[in-house]
């Protein structure tokens, strides 16, 4: 790119200095909120004077030089606010600019005034180097360009001023570059623009919003008169009936052209422009077939709006070199011979014939589409052909017009595939000037006089068929996507321009040649599937005819309605400009206010003109925050505020009449501070906040009551010493400074004692807003090491304590006795307050909560021991209910006097340690959402969420005495393969796969034993709607406590051991997720989180919760949930079936024997591997959390005896009846196709040689329409085994359809077919099982004439 003379930025004396270092300057305009995110880049020689740099920046951004400042910037952070001297003659190198690096500059207001916008001039067509590029992105590496525009998004200057070419660009809404290219081409077509201007919109007859011609008129007027660099196309697309989602759909520009022309023809019916599209763009051709024996010719006349030209013939490696070659190929005839012979009406037999196309008439505006998009059948991808194809600036079409005698064989004809495949040439079967018979256009033998007339007419046209190129629509990218832009020649000055969305620039004929395409190296056919290149896609030529070639209408030639429209649009643009000026001078800043009565911090955005005074701004903020009823206006003021640090930076005393622009430092898009509307009571006075002060929130600590008081705000200076700071606090708190200990919380849980009195606050780490704790007692605690002191422990606890709201299980008659270990003998729940008390006093009949817990723990130990003994004696231990666990247990709280004095219960001692050998194990779940399944009835071992899958972890490493007598130690291995049999120390063993940490370490001691934890609880009344009878606790707890210890602390309030209840964390929308990792702390919890406690037995180590579904292969819904069960590691499949029998009988009403059903793998809804009775979980069958299994009831004896067998589900298709039989299982001894066919033949009675089969597709039951099954499935695959491609049947459960190949398909009438189609559609829709491959469909391009896209919702 070579810049124009007046824009030349290279000093004359160094113009030829190719080796001179260059300086990259990146300028950010901070004066306007619209432009702060844009960057302007200048790449200038190092010898450029500063004065020249300012001139270049002014020219680039559209400001008047001298009305703005440039200051140094470092990315987004200003480091030096001193403006650069714009009158200096120093070079930028001497001024500190660094070559080879990015030099960031901020463009700022000068003396508080906004920069003045340079007066725009429209109509200029001078060459501009800054916008000179033709591709989707600016060209790189151009020699001599000193101001390369490198921003990929258009600069804010594009909003302010028109391109120096004089033309206006179009804004790309998202992916509307194809639309922009076509609109600019139509705008630059004089005949189309003039005709559009002559059409007059009648507002009384149509809504202007939905009128496509009217919106095009408006767009063209704006393109001609606007002073902007680019304008929006949203009004045009809205008239198409498009919504915002259409902007994200990229379409083909040729398709858009055809659809838009159709829409315009519909809108222009019964107007002067009704036939405009046909007059300008429509041509005619003849589609003929000529018998080579008798010369009889059948033909029809087709019309076309564009001619599709093949880039590369099918199957060829060589592309056509030029458009002329492609046009010759378009009319090249083909011979119909052999099986393709043509039935001649005259010969009454099939004969060899010549088929082809002949051009009869070319349009005034000739559109050629280069078919660069194709489909590669090898890779099954759409591809783009980037081959080189030249096109002339002037194209002589006379050689392609048909002038030969109709009686002679035609030699210049072509296959019709080129036209019809593209959908561009369409048959109108219309009467035309070239036929004597208006009613018949097929099978007409032309008479000689008709041919003579036609030849004479065409001969006269041949002399005037010279076309000149004026528009090239270019596609850059691949078949997967890309970018369109247009290269258009102006008929006003014969200059070529690149219209690339919002950018318009001059280009040359050489740039046009670069769009021919072409790629380096030898390439095979379809080798460029994902190649990306830039090349011409559509060419538009205009006939060179001085009599018809029009010029653009001058402004004085406009019709009156266009003159009015021009005036209207100018006024709207001026109004927009004035509004933009107001926006440019409006300060927008965050405003906060602590409401004086509601005591909540409110937030809003304050918008105030920069010339408004502070007093006026207070009035605006006062109304904005709606304080009229709360506080008088004179009790409010605005102060500088930092919301992030909650810091009041300064107040503005005596500056009530100062303009806000000066107070805030000018109009900016973002401010580094906020404003606070501060309020006071009428009897108070405002405190003065000086710059440089820091805010300190002081909390007074009382060691005796172990309390931390609410904060007192104190303002201090960073240069104050700690000693001076103590004196300041002493005045504010009336505490002695001599014994004062000051602890600074620098960040979360970083508590630092300030011991060096001479150190400044800045050195101690104080910042804008700080929090300190002070203590001034004369206790001995002052002399203890800080980290061992009572003060440190209290503050450490304070920093880590959170408040939680715990919902306890609801009281129900069925569960009262189960909680009796913590209840009175009467069976009542007891007073919850009693459990929350610490009972003090000399009375001998009162016990502390700690004593209660000790007794409760002893009871829990004995209960645990009883349970273990029962499990050892009872073979059906896993079937025992929780009721048996809690019967007849005496309450340890029966000695508590209910009249005892009440205090909040506090536990600050060491966590109670339970005997690990007798303590019940912890539980786990995989944190699925609890579906609020009833927890009041606990007759089952399993009280869990609908998808919980819990694993049992024992408290020690001893093997679990399971009901089946097996040891629990086993490893995971595959059902079909034991490749990892020797690897017993794997990561997915039951201990580690369980996802739950043990509560105890190897020595059996509680891991939290040595930690000092805090737990304090009190009854809490929840909000309405939480349920009647629901009991709540408000708990203050140290969040470093483990979940295990937390559950132990909750035991007295729940009424059961911690191993028999679960903790669910309640999130937004009342979603509940189970907390399961007992060794994790509560650190993820925060203040005011809610917790729900639900009853449910914990699993033991090596146990897994399993969801059992029934498999019903011949039912509409083949997958039915039955129950939750518990399977243990080391258990055999037969033992798990024995455990299931009573549960199936009691819960599901299924009275089965152990040999009447099988278990099999479940993968989503697909049945899989059949589990054999001797298989062992974790050894032969991988079992894990969230495991699901199918239960299948057998019709007879189990046929699956060995892992080598294969069970498939077969279904017969009867084409003569158009129906499918029920599923039948076939058990194979091997994967042989021959054996499958033999078994199917035995099952159905079909002779072996007539059996054909196909594998079902998709998810079980692989439903498919009976109208499609016969031809859509891959019948009778050529394989000998089932475990190879394309079958890949390697596991049980595959679906096989089979048929008798001699059975004929039923012939259906249209009525029968429609009826069957409705039934099948309804059936498949109900089952929802039809799964077919469906690639992402491209959304069809439509223009809705009534602006209503919802009129055809059934189509994609």
From TrEMBL:
> Source gene?
USP47
Q: Name one GO molecular function term.
A: cysteine-type deubiquitinase activity
The protein in question is named Ubiquitin carboxyl-terminal hydrolase 47
Positions with biased composition (Acidic residues): 988-1001
Q: Which segments does the entry list as coiled coil?
A: 558-585
Source organism (scientific name): Gallus gallus (Chicken)
SUPFAM superfamilies from the entry?
Cysteine proteinases (SSF54001)
Cite the residue spans of the region called Disordered. Answer: 406-432, 812-833, 860-951, 963-1006
Q: Where is the composition biased (Polar residues)?
A: 410-432, 890-902, 909-919
Gene3D superfamilies hit by this protein: Cysteine proteinases
Q: Give EC number(s), comma-separated.
A: 3.4.19.12
Q: Which Pfam families match?
A: Ubiquitin_2 (PF14560), Ubiquitin_USP47_N (PF25985), UCH (PF00443), USP47_C (PF19718)
State where composition is biased (Basic and acidic residues): 921-931
BP term (GO), one: protein deubiquitination
Query: Its catalytic activity?
Result: Thiol-dependent hydrolysis of ester, thioester, amide, peptide and isopeptide bonds formed by the C-terminal Gly of ubiquitin (a 76-residue protein attached to proteins as an intracellular targeting signal)
Task: Report which superkingdom the organism of origin falls in.
Answer: Eukaryota
Q: Which InterPro entries match?
A: Papain-like_cys_pep_sf (IPR038765), Peptidase_C19 (IPR050164), Peptidase_C19_UCH (IPR001394), Ubiquitin-like_dom (IPR000626), USP (IPR028889), USP47_C (IPR045578), USP_CS (IPR018200)
């Amino acid at each position: 790119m070579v810049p124009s003379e007046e824009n030349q930025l290279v000093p004359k004396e160094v113009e030829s200095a190719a080796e001179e270092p260059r300086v990259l300057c990146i300028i950010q305009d901070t004066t306007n909120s619209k432009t702060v995110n844009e960057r302007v880049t200048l790449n200038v020689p190092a010898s450029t004077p500063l004065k020249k740099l300012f001139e270049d920046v002014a020219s680039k951004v559209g400001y008047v030089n001298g009305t703005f400042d440039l200051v140094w910037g470092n990315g987004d952070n200003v480091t030096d606010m001193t403006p650069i001297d714009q009158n200096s003659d120093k070079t930028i190198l001497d001024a500190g600019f660094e070559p080879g690096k990015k030099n960031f500059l901020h463009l700022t207001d000068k003396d508080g005034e906004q920069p003045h916008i340079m007066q725009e001039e429209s109509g200029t067509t001078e060459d501009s180097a800054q916008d000179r590029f033709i591709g989707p992105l600016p060209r790189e590496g151009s020699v001599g360009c000193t101001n390369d525009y490198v921003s990929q998004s258009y600069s804010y200057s594009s909003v302010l001023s028109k391109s120096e070419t004089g033309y206006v660009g179009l804004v790309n809404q998202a992916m509307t570059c194809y639309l922009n290219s076509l609109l600019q081409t139509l705008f630059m077509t004089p005949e189309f623009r003039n005709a559009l201007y002559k059409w007059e919109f009648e507002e009384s007859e149509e809504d202007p919003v939905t009128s496509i011609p009217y919106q095009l008129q408006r767009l063209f007027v704006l393109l001609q008169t606007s002073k902007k660099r680019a304008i929006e196309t949203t009004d045009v697309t809205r008239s198409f009936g498009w919504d915002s989602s259409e902007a994200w759909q990229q379409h083909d520009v040729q398709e858009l052209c055809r659809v838009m022309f159709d829409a315009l023809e519909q809108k222009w019916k019964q107007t002067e422009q009704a036939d405009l599209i046909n007059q300008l763009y429509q041509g005619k051709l003849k589609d003929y077939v000529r018998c080579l024996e008798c010369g009889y010719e059948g033909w029809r006349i087709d019309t076309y709006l564009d001619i599709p030209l093949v880039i590369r013939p099918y199957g060829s490696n060589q592309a056509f070199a030029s458009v002329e070659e492609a046009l010759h190929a378009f009319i090249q005839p083909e011979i119909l011979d052999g099986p393709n012979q043509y039935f001649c009406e005259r010969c009454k037999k099939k004969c060899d014939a010549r088929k082809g196309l002949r051009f009869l008439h070319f349009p005034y505006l000739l559109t050629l589409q280069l078919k660069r998009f194709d489909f590669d059948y090898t890779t099954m991808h759409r591809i783009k052909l980037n081959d080189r194809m030249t096109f002339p600036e002037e194209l002589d079409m006379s050689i392609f017009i048909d002038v030969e005698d109709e009686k002679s064989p035609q030699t210049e004809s072509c296959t019709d595939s080129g036209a019809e495949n593209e959908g561009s040439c369409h048959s109108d079967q219309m009467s035309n000037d070239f036929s004597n018979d208006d009613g018949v256009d097929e099978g007409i033998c032309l008479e000689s006089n008709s041919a003579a007339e036609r030849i004479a007419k065409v001969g006269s046209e041949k002399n005037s068929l010279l076309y000149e190129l004026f528009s090239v629509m270019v596609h850059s990218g691949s078949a997967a996507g890309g970018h369109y832009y247009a290269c258009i020649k102006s008929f006003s000055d014969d200059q070529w321009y690149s219209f690339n969305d919002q950018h318009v620039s001059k280009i040359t004929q050489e740039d046009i040649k670069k769009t021919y395409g072409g790629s380096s190296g030898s390439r095979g056919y379809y080798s460029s599937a994902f190649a990306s290149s830039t090349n011409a896609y559509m060419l538009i030529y205009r006939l060179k005819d001085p009599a018809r070639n029009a010029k653009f209408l001058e402004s004085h030639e406009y019709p009156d309605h266009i003159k009015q429209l021009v005036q209207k649009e100018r006024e709207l643009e001026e109004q927009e400009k004035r509004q933009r000026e107001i926006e440019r001078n409006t300060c927008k800043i965050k405003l906060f206010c602590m409401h004086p009565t509601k005591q909540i911090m409110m937030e809003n955005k304050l918008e105030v003109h920069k010339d408004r005074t502070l007093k006026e701004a207070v009035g605006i903020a006062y109304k904005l925050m709606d304080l009229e009823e709360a506080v008088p206006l004179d009790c409010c003021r605005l102060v500088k505020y930092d919301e992030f640090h909650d810091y009041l930076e300064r107040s503005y005393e005596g500056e009530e009449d100062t303009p806000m622009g000066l107070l805030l430092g000018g109009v900016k898009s973002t401010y580094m501070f906020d404003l606070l509307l501060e309020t006071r009571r009428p009897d108070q006075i405002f405190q003065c906040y000086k710059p440089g002060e820091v805010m300190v929130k002081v909390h007074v600590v009382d060691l005796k009551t172990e309390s931390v008081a609410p904060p007192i705000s104190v303002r201090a200076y960073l240069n104050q010493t700690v000693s001076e700071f103590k004196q300041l606090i002493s005045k504010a708190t009336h505490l002695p400074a001599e014994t004062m200990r000051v602890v600074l919380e620098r960040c979360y849980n970083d508590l630092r004692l300030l011991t060096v009195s001479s150190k400044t606050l800045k050195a101690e780490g104080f910042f804008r807003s700080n929090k300190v704790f002070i203590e001034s007692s004369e206790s001995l605690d002052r002399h203890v090491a800080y980290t061992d002191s009572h003060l440190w422990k209290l503050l450490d606890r304070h920093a880590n304590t959170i408040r939680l709201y715990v919902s306890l299980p609801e009281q129900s008659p069925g569960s009262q006795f189960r909680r009796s270990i913590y209840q009175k003998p009467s069976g009542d729940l007891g007073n919850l307050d009693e459990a929350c008390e610490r009972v003090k006093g000399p009375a001998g009949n009162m016990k502390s909560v700690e004593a209660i817990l000790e007794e409760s723990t002893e009871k829990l130990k004995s209960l645990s021991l009883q349970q273990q003994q029962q499990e050892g004696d009872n073979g059906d231990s896993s079937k025992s209910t929780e009721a048996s666990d809690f019967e007849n247990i005496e309450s340890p709280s029966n000695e508590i006097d209910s009249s005892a004095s009440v205090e909040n219960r506090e536990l600050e001692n060491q966590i109670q340690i339970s005997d690990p050998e007798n303590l019940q194990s912890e539980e786990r779940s995989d944190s699925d959402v609890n579906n609020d399944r009833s927890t009041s009835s606990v007759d089952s071992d399993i009280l869990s969420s609908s998808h919980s899958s819990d694993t049992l972890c024992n408290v020690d490493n001893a093997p679990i005495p399971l009901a089946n007598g097996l040891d629990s130690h086993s490893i995971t291995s595959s059902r079909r393969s034991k490749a990892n049999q020797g690897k017993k120390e794997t990561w997915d063993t039951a201990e580690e796969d369980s996802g739950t940490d043990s509560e105890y370490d190897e020595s059996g001691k509680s891991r939290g034993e040595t930690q000092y934890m805090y737990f304090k609880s009190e009854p809490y009344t929840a909000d309405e709607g939480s349920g009647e009878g629901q009991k709540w606790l408000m708990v203050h707890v140290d969040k470093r406590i483990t979940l295990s210890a937390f559950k132990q602390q909750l035991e007295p309030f729940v009424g059961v051991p911690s191993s028999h209840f679960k903790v669910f964390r309640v999130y937004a929308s009342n979603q509940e997720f189970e907390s399961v990792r007992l060794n994790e702390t509560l650190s993820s919890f925060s203040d005011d989180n809610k917790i729900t406690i639900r009853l449910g037995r914990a699993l033991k180590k090596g146990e897994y919760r399993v969801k059992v579904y029934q498999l019903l292969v011949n039912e509409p819904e083949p997958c039915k949930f039955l129950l939750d069960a518990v399977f243990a590691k080391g258990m055999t499949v037969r033992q798990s079936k024995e455990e299931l029998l009573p549960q199936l009988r009691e819960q599901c009403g299924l009275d089965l024997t152990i040999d009447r059903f099988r278990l099999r793998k479940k993968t989503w809804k697909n049945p899989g591997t059949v589990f054999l009775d001797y298989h062992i979980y974790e050894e032969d069958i991988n079992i894990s959390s969230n495991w699901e299994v199918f239960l299948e009831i057998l019709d007879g004896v189990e046929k699956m005896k060995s892992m080598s067998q294969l069970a498939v589900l077969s279904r017969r298709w009867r084409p003569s009846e158009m129906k499918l039989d029920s599923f039948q299982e076939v058990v194979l001894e091997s994967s042989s196709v021959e054996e499958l066919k033999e078994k199917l033949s035995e099952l159905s009675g079909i002779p072996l040689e007539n059996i054909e089969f196909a594998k079902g597709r998709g998810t079980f039951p692989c439903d498919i329409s009976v109208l499609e099954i016969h031809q859509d499935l891959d019948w009778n695959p050529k394989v000998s085994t089932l475990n190879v491609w394309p079958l890949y049947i390697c596991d049980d459960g595959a679906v096989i359809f089979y048929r008798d190949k001699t059975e004929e398909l039923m012939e259906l009438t249209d009525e029968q077919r429609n009826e069957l189609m409705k039934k099948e559609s309804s059936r498949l829709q109900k089952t929802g099982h039809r799964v077919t491959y469906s690639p992402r469909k491209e959304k069809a391009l439509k223009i809705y004439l009534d602006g209503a896209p919802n009129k055809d919702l059934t189509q994609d």
